[in-house]
Amino acid sequence: MHTFTAIFLAALIITVLTRTWLATRHIRYILAHRDRVPENFSSQIKLEIHQKAADYTCAKTRLGYVSLSVETALLLIFTLGGGLNALAAFWSDWLSDPLVHGMALIISAALLMSVVEIPVSYYRTFVIEQQFGFNKMTPRMYFVDLVKRIALGVLLGVPLLFGILWLMEKMGSYWWFYAWLAWMGFNLVVLAIFPTWIAPIFNKFTPLEDAALKERIEQLMRKCGFKSSGLFVMDGSRRSNHGNAYFTGFGKTKRIVFFDTLLSRLDITEIEAVLAHELGHFKRHHVIKRIAWTFAMSLIFLWALGYLMQQPWFYQGLGVSVSSVPSTAMALLLFFLVMPTFTFLFQPLASLYSRKHEFEADKYAADNASAPHLIHALIKLYKDNASTLTPDPLHSAFYDSHPPAAMRIARLENLAHN
């Protein structure tokens, strides 16, 4: 066995076993606490609501076993199983230009992965979400959205892919730096056009009409020094009963968006507190910091790819013969297929960084709105979204970008008393 093959298989086994172990821990922990509401929430959340959240979370986690099995099987089929070799050989019979061949290879692999994932996604939407009263989608709407996402991916992704592959082919040993610049530019453009060009493809956005709420929000925005292109309500209830709020965009395209489901469940003071939390992300420069972090990591990954694509063992160890590599596209595809296997154990670091930002945004909301009102809003959202109050701590450390409910509420209560 090739040395890198053994390393890859070892990393894959560790990742799969760790993810399986974490999911099993999570289910067992939630079920162990299913029959009793945590003391801090017992006066506000009924036992049947707590049990619904436990059952909903366990159902989603169990489906994760299937997703993991499908992901792992597909990865092994594409690499050591010879799937990428077969795709490359198929396109070689039709396409001779290395750049066009490389694009066909990557696009066809991406489409195959998307098709394989559809049954799991469909089951999640029309069985689990339906069973717990969240799904509002029809099968027709589901597949229309799927077609829209594919079309959008083609419209935006194909030019980007062509540009990256062209840079890899033409810019010499430092192609990875030029590709990084192109990647940064692409992301900033998408961030800028998302609110006005991309999001409306999937949802309807209407200006906020509640005069009292609008005035309250505008006062908060003036207090926080936040300028946006408008306050909008999104028809989230067309697809789901889940509620949320966010601000999006970049520069002059910034806008604040409320799910209509959120507005129907929270009162004015609670909505103000939730918005103050979102504004806290802006005022504490979290968006800029996350963009900078993403760009820094992408530079490191592209540099690593620049090194690996020159190493025959990288291809051979993953089941691809060097002689069959038609272009740099194979290196790019292999790298992004196997990278999650080697980086999974570092995931808690990203979660920890995100949680730090959430705590900072909560403090900003407590300082500029009201900690008690944010607590009330969060508890309503936990109830309405069936978010478990008792996640397994280790599972949460790997997967949850937000702090566990008990920890978050405890910090807000401490802020309210200070």
Notes on the protein architecture:
- It is built from 16 helices and 4 strands.
- Helix 1 packs antiparallel against helix 2 and helix 13 packs parallel to helix 16.
- A hairpin with a 6-residue loop joins strand 3 and strand 4.
- A 4-stranded mixed sheet has the order 1-2-4-3.
- It is about 70% helix and about 5% strand.
- It is mainly α and about 425 residues long.
- The N and C termini lie far apart (about 60 Å).
- The longest helix has about 35 residues.
Q: SSE string, helix = H, strand = E?
A: HHHHHHEHEEEHHHHHHHHH
Unreliable spans: none
Going across the major beta sheet, what is the strand order?
A: 1-2-4-3
User: How would you describe the oligomerization state of the chains in this entry?
Assistant: single chain
User: Which strand-content bin applies to the residues?
Assistant: under 5%
